[in-house]
# Entry
Amino acid sequence: MRFAQDCVTLRGATFSSRIGDKPTLPGDTAMTTKADAGKIEVQDIEELNYAVWPWDLRMRQLSSGRMLANLDFAQVNGILLTHERWSKRVFATGATPRGYLALAGLCADREFTWCGASVCQGVVSCGLDGTAIEFGTPDNANHWVILVPTGMLTGYLGAELTADLLPKERSLTSPPQLVRQLGSLVLHIITLLRSNSSYRSNRLLLDAFQLQLLAAVTALLACADETGRLATTRTQYAACRRALHIAETLRQPTRIDELAAAVGISRRGLELGFREAFDISPQRYLHRIRMNGLHRDLRRAMPGRETVTEAAGRWGFVELGRTAVEYRQLFDESPSTTLAREARLDCRRLSDALTLRA
# Structure
């Protein structure tokens, strides 16, 4: 499943190539809704996977208990802002949205891993135009995210400056005050647009917000150091990434020695790399990925056409009693309860906010 750029209507604008010049915005009056804002609440890891689209992610719940996630969002002239709080630890693989620069930072002192780097205060995770990523968040994660259309940045800065500023790495170290400035601006705009619906059709206000966001992003990128803070060596990280991709295809229990040999690293090297880059042991990850696969199949199955035994067997779980106990500990419900729930996912998605309505 990929993000189709031509399905998104972005606010048109003609920008000067000089930073600080006011953009010339379209004068049409037919399009009255220029912004959107709201809140998405989910209570299941599969609902979270669904809700965060246009992020092309496969997220797995790693810590025990029911997943509760809140996504406060606002969309300003095509720029998408989110404030996300996830109650349970998550590990995800996938890609950033195509056609966008994605930046994310902390709202609280709850570090997470992003593509082998540790994201802490003063560090921003980033991705450009469908960048392949993997990341791990802790329990009670609290972070902000901004998606800026790359075409909008090009219009604001000019092609040459944009090419120089767009990040080549997946994490950036920038002055903490600039990171805090952008994060605070994201949260402030979300709060204002959610609190008063009339602001969402105030063209002057939205244009001002758009310029503030572009200026804050530009300042952060201009002062950024693309070293990040690597959690492990690049060679070890590359081997661990290959192991992640192999793990995606596994449906049966696998020995760590075999996985290490497949990626050309020692067992100890794989274990150390996983702990340092992803903050989890490979053994635990392999078990959790199969348990999440079982949960995904049960969540999407039609009652009466699938049994827990059949689904568990596909993921290599043969001791159903033990599996049911571990499943309940992880997802706070029995496998049969998950199967009995409606298969459809009908919560709102972030991508809904990117379609402006006339």
